[in-house]
Fold each of these.
Amino acid sequence: MFEDLIRAWDGEEVAIHYDHPSGAWMFVCIHSTKRGPADGGTRMRVYDTPAEGLADAMRLSEGMTLKMAAADIPFGGAKAVIAVSKLPEGDERRRLLLSYADLAASFGGNFHTAPDMNTTSADMDVIAERHRYVFCRSIGRGGSGDPGPFTARGVFHGIRASAARVFGSADLAGTSVLVQGVGSVGARLADQLAEAGARVLVADIDAERARLLAQRIGAEVVPPETAIELECDIYAPCGMGATLNAQSIPRLRCRIVAGSANNQLAESEDADALGRAGILYAPDYVINAGGVIGSWGTESLGWDADTIEARLAGIGNSLTEIYERAEAERSSTNAAAERLARARLGAA
Ligand code: NAD
C-alpha cells in the first residue's frame, strides 16, 4: 500500500518511521524544494490505517507547495503526519515528539516545520530541542507563537477583496458574514468583522465558545448543523475542511465563500459547481496563507510588523488578480489560483 502511494505521488522524498513503543507511524513528505527548503506543519491524528496518514501527508504537502508559491514566499512544500492510535499526553507525548524530532532533523535544513492539527506551540518547543528548523515555538522560547492571529488578519483582507469583487465595495458595514468555527482563527476574524460593522453570525459545535464570543462582540449564534443553509452575504468556513461538496453546495445561500479552513473543497470539481451557482470562491490556500506569512516572515525573513501587515493585505490583492484571471480564462477561481502558483513554480 505504501509503495503504490509513493510511486503515484509527484513529490520529491518520503521518510517513514515506525515508533515501536507506541505503534505510531511517522511520515515526512517533502513535496518540492524548487523555491527553497520544504516547509509544512506536523499533524498528529488518529487514522483508520497508516496508509491514510501517508496519503494525507502527501496531499497536504502539495498544498503547502502551492500555498508558498501563491504567497510568493521563498520556501517549498512539505508536511509531516504522526499517525497515532490515541492522542498522547504527558511524558508519552514528549517521548514521541522527541523521537519525531530526530526524524525531522535527519533532513537537516531541508525540512522546516510548525504546528498543525493537534499540535501546538508547546509541542514545537519540544521538537526544537532536537530539530533546529521549527516555527511557531512559544513566544517565551523565542518563537512567534500561535499563527492564528496572522491567519485571521489575512482572511479579513481576503474577505474585503472578495466583497469588492461581488458587491462593488470592500466596506463590510451591514454585510452579513457567517463564521463557521470560532477557534483560534474564527474568533479573531469575527472580532475584526464586527469592528468593521458587519452583521456577524457565528456557529460552533462548542456551543459555549460560540455563546461567549457572540456576547462579547455582539454577534448572533446560529445552530452548527444547519448554519450553511442560512441566508448571508459571505460564508467563512473556519472549522473543518471539505464543507463544500455535491450535497452542501446546492444548500448554500451566500454570494461568497471565503474562510480559513484547509481543503474546503471535497473534490476539485466542486469549484466549478460553486461558479455555476454564482458563488465566488476564495481558494483556501491563498486566503489562509496569513499564518505562514506572519510566522515565517517574523522568524525567518526578518520582516517587521509593517511589512507583515502589507503582505497580509497582499492576500486581498492576490485574490483580486485570481478573480480577474478566472473571469478572463473562463475557469474556476481554484483553477486560476493553481495556474498562478504553478507558473511561479515553473519560474523558480
Ligand atoms: P481551532 O481548532 O482553534 O478552531 C476550530 C473551531 O472549529 C473549534 O472551535 C471547533 O469547535 C470548531 N468546529 C469544528 N467542527 C465544526 C463544525 N462542524 N461546525 C462548527 N464548528 C466546528 O482551529 P484553527 O486554528 O482556528 O483553524 C481553523 C481552520 O483553519 C482549520 O481548518 C485549520 O486547518 C485552518 N487553518 C488554520 C491556520 C492557523 O493559523 N491556525 C492556518 C491555515 C489554515
Amino acid sequence: MCGIVGYVGKQEAAPILVDGLRRLEYRGYDSAGLAVHDGQKIKVVRAVGKLRELEKALVASPLIGTTGIGHTRWATHGRVSETNAHPHVAGDVAVIHNGIIENHMALRAQLEAKGARVVSDTDTEIIAHLVDEQLRAGKDLEAAVRSSLAQVEGAYAIAVSSVKEPAKLIVAKNASPLVLGLGEGETFCGSDIPALLPYTTRMIVLDDGQLAVLTHDGVRISTLAGAPIEPAIRVIDWSPVMAEKSGYKHFMLKEIFEQPRAIEDTLRGRLDRERGDIDGAEIGLSAEDAKRVGRVYLLACGTSHHAAMIGRHYFEKLARMPATVELASEFRARDPVILPGDLVIAISQSGETLDTLMAAKLAKERGARVLAIANVMGSAIPRMADGELYTRAGPEIGVASTKCFTAQLCALLMLALYVARRRDAVSAERARELVEGMARLPHLMRDVLQGTRQLTLSLARRHLDARDVLFLGRGPSFPIALEGALKLKEISYVHAEGYAAGEMKHGPIALIDSNVPVIVLVPRDEFRDKSMSNLQEAKARGGVIVAIATEGDEEARTLADEVGEVPPADSDLLPLLTILPLQLYAYYVADLKGTDVDQPRNLAKTVTVE
Ligand code: F6R
C-alpha cells in the first residue's frame, strides 16, 4: 500500500519526486525516501514519519541529479524505521517497491548463503540484491531486472535505478498499480494518475507481467519474457487542480463539498430523461444479458461495502432480483457457490483493493460475469472485469472516502435501473420519476451541504468529549448509519457504531445514557414511522438525540434535541442526501480534536494487502 514515483529527464529530479510523493502520501505515510543519480553515483535520503520529515532531511542533504525514484511507505514487512524505509540499496542498485514478495524468506536465505548482507527486515531489499547479483554477473540493468523478477513470487510495482546506467529506470508490475507518464523530454512513473497529473496528461497504465524501460525519450514496454508491447496511451481529462486543496483546510472537506459536482459528472451523458432510462452502452451488458441474470452479488470492502448494501436495496426493489452483499474478504474465506447467470458487481473507489480484486477473480473463475464500479480509470478491478461503469468523482485524496461513496450510490442506482428497464421490472413512469430525481440530485446536495454545515459544526463542538456515538437507521438508512459511524471512528478515533434501528432493542440499547449522542436517520420514506419509534426509545433512555429528518417534520423537531434537515426527495435518492451531514459531523469532530484528517493513523487509501 505504498506509493512509488520515478523521474528521468532534464530537470532536477528531487523536487518532482517529493511533489509526486505528496500526492501519493495517502497510500502510506510512516516513512519516505528518495534515491537520485547524480551522474556518478546514487545517493539516498530517507526519513521516518510523514513526508515533511523527508523534506527536512533533504534540506540537510540535498540530492542533485535528473534521474531518481521516491517512495512513501505503509509498513507490511518490518517495523517503521529508517533502515526499513525505501529506496533499498544493494551494491550499484536502488529499488522502490509497492506490494509483497511472498518468497522473500527463501530468497533471503539463498542470498545470505552466497554472502549478501541484507540489512533491513523488508521483502524489498531482496529485489535490490537479486538485481545487483545479476549485474555483477555481467547483465545490463534491463536483463538483470528481468531475471531477478523470474525468481520472485508475489505482488509488485517496482522501479529500479543503477549506478551504471544513469539516465534510465526499469519498472515492472504484477498485481500492484503502476502508471507511466509521457512528457516532453521527460518520463515519469507513479502508483496512480494524480501523482503525475501536474506534469503530463499522457499516460500508460501498465498491465500485470509488463516491464518498461524509461529514458528521457520515452518508454519501451515488453512482457517479462521480453516480447515487445505497443502501449495504449490515454489522455487523462482530470485536471491537476482536482488534486489540490483549493483553499479548503483539508482534502476531505473539499471532497465533501465537491459531491454535487461529482454526481453531475457521474450522471453526465448517462440519463435518458425522455425515455426514463439509462444509457448503458459502456456497461457491456446487453438487454439479453440483463434478462439472463439470475442473481446479483455485490462485492466490496469498507465504505464501498456500505454502498453495496444500498445497491442491494436498488436491485431488489427496482429490478426485483435476488441480490446478495458480500464483504470481499469474507466471500473469499468461504467456498462460494456461483450459479449460471450470476452477475457479480465489484465496487471499489481505487479499483485496486486486493480483497475485492481477488474475490471478483474467484467469482469469474467460477463462471460469474463481473461488472466493476470504480473511480480510478484503468485500475486492476475494471481491467479484469467483463464490463465497467466508472464513477467520475475525480481523484479522492482524503483517506476517508466521501465523494466516491455518493458517486458509487449513483452508479449503483443507474445500473439497477438499467437492468430493471431491460427486464421490464419497473414501470416507465417510475423510471422517469427516478431519472428526473437523479438529475435534480446535485442541486439538492448543495442545499443540504450549505444547510447543515453550521449545525454539524456546533454539534461537533458539543459532542467533543463524547466517548461513544451511536448511529441508527432502517432500510437504506441502515448502511448510512454504518457509514456515518465508520467516518467518525476512522478520522476522529471516537468509538462509534451503526445499528439497524429495529435491532437496537435486542441489545445495543443498553449502551445508551445521557453521555451518548444518538444520531437517528428518519427521513420521510416508508421506514420513517418505525424509526421514529426507535428514536423515542433512545430518548426515553436519556440519549442525546440528533435526528436527520425531512424538512418540515415537526414531530422530529419536538422529539429530538437537534435536527439536521434534508429536502423532500424520492426515497431511493435519500441516502445520497442523508449521508452528507454525517460526513460533515465526522469531519468537524476530527478537525476540532486536531487529528490528521486526511491521513488518519494506521490507514491507507489503497489497500493492496489481504
Ligand atoms: C473508508 C474507506 C475504506 C474503503 C475501503 C475500500 O473511508 O475509504 O473503508 O472504502 O478500503 O476501498 P476501495 O473502495 O478503494 O476498494
